[in-house]
Specification:
single chain, about 280 residues, mainly alpha, two-stranded antiparallel ribbon, 11 helices, about 40% helix
Length: about 280
């Protein structure tokens, strides 16, 4: 309303022919240090746009974020469209690599979102946060295993959906690395959950889902990340534990969410028989 009254006053002054030297111009927005526009006032001070805080936790997929952005006045459809048209940070993908979606790059964090805002603005904030976080991840070990930065991001996304206990992250990463080396299907059910459109235990028919994301039937990494992982999972994906495990199982009833790990299938099955889910 203040801006509208100021504009109205200026229009009136123009009509009266009395605009003189020293009148404040408001014919363009002035952007604050955080990228949010501010409004100039006659006294030379600025009024920063109000902000709303949005918490995006680790492990959300784009479809999950779409359902949350309304809390800060962003239309879900607008955010989905912005995510569809977004591209990974320049130079992130290796030669010949292609990211079919922006999944994985929308960094989880607490965002102060200027009001009003758009899906494109929030996506830009998330991509900037991702670049800042990922540049500190040492990829030397992953590179020695012939894995790219995008491969590490895919692994991190699976770790994020599978791990509950923080201490298990690097060990789950080791299982993934070991299975890749052995050319075994990864058997990560969260990839099937992603393809099925929900984060609940896959049904028997879903386990047979015909999809490149079905890591029970397809070898190698999924086509894209399955969620947007946090820094702890990114670090674990780049620095797996030095263990030979090939199997893991969520221990039923364990309040800390710990996993049981095994190197051979017989031991794995024996543990499940004693601790059915």
């Amino acid at each position: 309303m203040a801006l509208r009254r100021t504009i109205g006053a200026l229009v009136m002054l123009v009509l009266l022919g009395v605009i003189g030297y020293g009148m404040v111009r408001i014919d363009r927005a002035v952007f604050g240090s955080d990228g949010g526009p501010t409004t100039s006032t006659p006294t030379g001070t600025t009024q920063t746009r109000p902000k709303k805080r949005l918490l995006l936790i680790e492990g959300l997929a784009v479809r999950d974020i779409v359902r949350k952005v309304g809390k800060v006045g962003i239309a879900g459809a607008g955010y989905a469209a912005a995510a569809t048209h977004a591209t990974p940070p320049t130079g992130f993908l290796g030669p010949g690599e292609r990211a079919a979606t922006i999944e994985g790059f929308l960094f989880p964090a607490t965002y102060d979102v200027p009001q009003p805002s758009t899906g494109a603005n929030l996506v830009a904030q998330q991509l900037k946060a991702f670049s800042a976080a990922f540049k500190g991840v040492d990829l030397s070990y992953a590179t020695s295993r012939k894995l790219t930065a995008y491969d590490v991001l895919k692994i991190a996304s699976m770790i994020e959906r599978e791990a509950v206990a923080p201490a298990d992250r690097a060990t789950i990463a080791a299982v993934i690395y070991n299975r890749l080396k052995a050319r075994m299907p990864l058997g990560i059910d969260s990839t099937i959950e992603y393809a099925s459109g929900h984060w609940t235990t896959p049904t028997a028919p879903e386990l047979r889902l015909v999809s490149p994301f079905n890591s029970r039937t397809h070898r190698g990494l999924p086509p894209t990340p399955i969620c947007n992982p946090g820094l702890a999972s990114l670090e674990a994906a780049a620095h797996p534990a030095k263990v030979s495990y090939l199997y893991f199982y969520a221990i039923p009833g364990n309040k800390a969410g710990k996993m049981f790990f095994a190197t051979d299938y017989a031991t794995f099955l024996a543990f499940i028989a004693k601790h059915p889910g």
